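Example 3.
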Amino acid sequence: MSLLFSPLTIRETTFRNRLWVSPMCMYSAEDGFPGDWHHVHLAQFASGGAGLVVSEATAVSPEGRISPRDTGIWDDARRDAWAPVVAAVHARGAAAGIQLAHAGRKASTWWPFAGRQGSVPAAEGGWTAVAPSAIAYEGFAVPAALDEPGILRVIADFRAAARRAVDAGFDLVELHAAHGYLLHEFLSPLSNEREDRWGGSLENRARIVLEVVRAVRAEVGEAVPVLVRFSATDSAPGGLEVDDVATVAGWARDAGADLFDVSSSGLVAHQRISTGPGYQVPFAARVREATGAPTAAVGIVTSGEQAERILQDGQADAVFAGREFLRDPHFALRAAGELHEDPAALWPPQYVRAYRERPR
Ligand code: FNR
């Protein structure tokens, strides 16, 4: 059996395999509610054999949405809207995760297919974004710097959102500390110029992430896996580098995090990244090596053989894919075929004729 299609257990959740659907915003929510789109979109990946389906960046508070069309889980009504989506994923054999997020200074922006760019004005449904410091992301409105009660509220919002996620049936939560959103903005010296206990040294800049991990762990108990997505580098001079992030990941592990999902960049518009197949995998390997904790690799992984090699080389314990699942929601079934896995073990019985009777 391949490693990719070997089960993995974290705390009390067993994943049927290690090819996972990366969180992807659909910008298709009405007032924070997931709806029909999310239901079909997420369930199809479970039918397609993924081991874990992580729903998009879901805001812990209304002002934490990237755009007015993001999903949220800031109250019980939105929690209840997630429950049938989770049930649909479970019914098809995959674990269900949710990415809990606060967009920080990148909140209140137009969604990618809105036909407009930049910040949404208040008159058109926008709001004032908040951040560690009043420093704008290039092209966006200047955010308001959070005060101490505001920071404590963010931590409490993550905690309450994690409770609702578990109550909605999600098997795990992933905390979004990457891609230039609020938690990442605290971590990076390029966006955090605070002079209080939430800024300055790496330890101070990491404080909010660690407080969120501790609060979420205390809330969800010992059974539920808690993942953290980090950007391993800001890809810009003076920004975070992978060794900083590996240090923070080690602290986060001690605070109760289980696995690190290692992405990169997104903090500043002037970043310089060179992408290519598996371009972020070395970051996952570095964090794994430095912390001894399991990691997931992500970024241009498009075949079962490529994903298997990442695991065989000891660079990560699981692989997330995003766009390849959008191109082919049955990517995991295809990957299983490439790796000569028994199709009967993964193919839904309703679909298995399509496998047996395939043209050769
Ligand atoms: C994303 N990505 C992303 N990442 C994240 O942490 N939270 C999110 O909500 C989103 N939203 C999102 C939407 C869409 C349409 C895409 C294509 C991507 C990034 C995604 O999870 C993944 O990290 C990258 O796409 C790189 O992986 P692939 O696509 O090369 O497999």
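The first helix runs from residue 36 to 47. The mean pLDDT is 97.
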